[in-house]
Amino acid sequence: LINCCSTCLTNCTLGNLIKKKAIHAGAACLGSVNLKGRSCLTLKDFSSDEIKKLLWVSGDLKHRIKHEKQYLPLLQGKSIAMIFEKRSTRTRMSTETGFSLLGGHPCFLTSQDIHLGVNESWSSLDSVMLSWLVYKHSTLEELDREASIPIINGLSDLYHPIQILADFLTLQEHYGSLNGLTVSWIGDGNNVLHSFMMTAAKLGVHLKVATPKGYEPDKGVTEEAHRLAKQHGTQLILTSDPMEAARDSNVLVTDTWVSMGQEEEKKKRLKDFHGYQISMQTGSVAKSDWTFLHCLPRKMEEVDDQVFYSSRSLVFSEAENRKWTIMGLIVSLLTDYTPQIPMLKF
């Protein structure tokens, strides 16, 4: 027994030393990642380490500002132009308050205030502002080609990268680690799903997707997601059966079935999405620790009250993290900031 315990103690000590060295090596690796000057149109363009660095910076800012009550004027003297083609509560509030909290000056502009490409050339704002756009994705790509400053996609018809950063920070905080989790998307094959598909595999997360027939994700995005899953050794499963997608999953996610501009399709969409509402019955086939995400605003047909207001629902933490992750993203694109907290466990 004595020999056995001594051997176990030695093994545990060696194991801990190896683990600590691996953690330090990982922190050093992420610490060397520099995103200054980059744009963020889609997380498709970011590597696994780059996404982890963004989440680490976001978690660091949240800890230092929210919990330690530190003032970090990292963006003092900088301005951001937030140009919106569609209304957005969380995107506008998280960006305005977050940018101000870091000492910068946010400028909110609507399509009535400015006409890029018509009365204003692409380059007329380029020399003075970081630009925040809500546009067709092709327009974002055109602007990024012309601009010499970082462009951030607040939401486009193809991707919603800032939402996914908030989602994964929320899951990292709740579960303590992301690697090996299974996320199930049950709903429309939209821009939020596309961003999940471009990100999950890079974080070691399995993804199961249930969409009604005719509402599948973009073909090109799907092909790239399969490639990423193969590269990173994760699963990507696409189905039209919500219960099949939910089975053995850690996280159930949905979004609006009727987005802005789709109001005329509402009656047909509600019929086509029948059976896709997330309820406790959906969760009954998931893992015992399952949680729920929704980027908001939520409607009753998408998820019932029993799930939405339950302890399994992380939607309000998720909404708060929109601010911390957009702050982390902007700081990473504009500065050489190094996180002060230990590296997050991924």
UniProtKB/TrEMBL annotation:
Q: Care to name a GO molecular-function term for this sequence?
A: ornithine carbamoyltransferase activity
Which Enzyme Commission number(s) are listed? 2.1.3.3
Q: The Aspartate/ornithine carbamoyltransferase carbamoyl-P binding domain covers which part of the protein?
A: 38-173
Per the record's keyword annotation, is Amino-acid biosynthesis included, yes or no? yes
| SUPFAM superfamilies in alphabetical order | Aspartate/ornithine carbamoyltransferase
Enzyme class, first EC level, given as a word: transferase
Q: Which residues form the Aspartate/ornithine carbamoyltransferase Asp/Orn-binding domain?
A: 180-332
Q: PANTHER family per the record?
A: ORNITHINE CARBAMOYLTRANSFERASE, MITOCHONDRIAL, ORNITHINE TRANSCARBAMYLASE, MITOCHONDRIAL
Q: How does it assemble?
A: Homotrimer.
Q: Which family does it belong to?
A: Belongs to the aspartate/ornithine carbamoyltransferase superfamily. OTCase family.
This protein's name = ornithine carbamoyltransferase
